[in-house]
Amino acid sequence: MYELIILEIRPRLCSVNGFVKFSNRPDDVKVSLDDDLKLVFNRREEKIPCQFTGIVKNSLTVKVNDTHVIFRFATKNEASGSFKTEVLQNTATNFKFSHDKPLFSANTSYTCLCGKCKTPLTNPLVFERILPLPSDNSDPNEWFCHRSDVGNNFNLDPKPSDIFYTHCLVHLNIQNIQNVDETGKIVFCKSCQDWLGLKYNDNTAKFWLNTVEFISDNNLVSTSSLQDVFNVINSVFQQKLQSSVKIMLCCQTTINNIEAVLLWILEKRLEVFYDNSREEKKCDVAKVLFKSVDNHDNIFDQWKNDLMVDTIDVSKSMILSVSNHLAECNRALPDEFAKSNDFNVSYLFMYDGCTI
């Protein structure tokens, strides 16, 4: 029995790359291509549905190793018959965002809790000003359309009655915070010692909504760490016209250590079909090269100082979630396709709620 099947479908290139992963190498594998792809192994036959790709039947190439069947075949691009048509169809990409809706309501009492042990981190708060931050990097210069003297006199730190937010983090006045420990800039829950966020400056605490939660009488404001990573990456994609993008996700985990995941996006939106023996699904993914590093590695400084790299601060749970996601997808690939240029190859199942 196979563990996983992945088909990478590239209509513009008229090709499909496929990987079938086995738990144990079958004795004798035969692969044939007709209206479907057929695998015959251990006296049983498995069909991989490929009707949606417009198969060129005599184009199949196959390689079998200890854990995988690797294959490739050509397809007919009937929807795009010319180079001009293909360019017109593939230059625009639509992205869906879920963080435009305000997260907090006026005249509502909220209490901030530790996301892990539920220890109250504030007394009940009613916010008079609820303002969106300009980006996940929260750079105050981005609050103005041009440089002016107003930036020197205008205080962007939240007052005790303010909350500033993005889709995945908040800025709170430090006077509101209780039941926490601080080590340098890092803020921990005093009860469970879970990583909560950072002391942004002397007046402001920066918490992520996947490490804390806000409760009111009829509402809970909390987010998923992996979905927050996907939203951050989507935000970068919306600002970039290039198909290849570099993103550096950073988190200060101790006084002397900053962990980072380096993402080199190869394809922003790649159509895949996958079958994990429990379900079959066709969806879009981002194909990436990734590498986990820290601030003691030379490549950390190289990427940090590269103006072409988008560097974004994230929470510790976001680093862990995306690292696990990337590693799981990487394990699905054959060894010869799992690494490139000293990076690991993987997918981000970041569209349409798809999971591997």
From TrEMBL:
User: Could you say which residues form the signal peptide?
Assistant: none
Q: Give the organism the record lists.
A: Acanthoscelides obtectus (Bean weevil)
Pfam families documented for this protein: HECT_2 (PF09814)
InterPro entries recorded: UBQ-conj_enz_E2-bd_prot
> What is the protein named?
E3 ubiquitin-protein ligase E3D
Which superkingdom is the protein from? Answer: Eukaryota
Enumerate the catalysed reactions: S-ubiquitinyl-[E2 ubiquitin-conjugating enzyme]-L-cysteine + [acceptor protein]-L-lysine = [E2 ubiquitin-conjugating enzyme]-L-cysteine + N(6)-ubiquitinyl-[acceptor protein]-L-lysine
UniProt enzyme class: transferase
A GO cellular component term found in this entry reads:
ubiquitin ligase complex
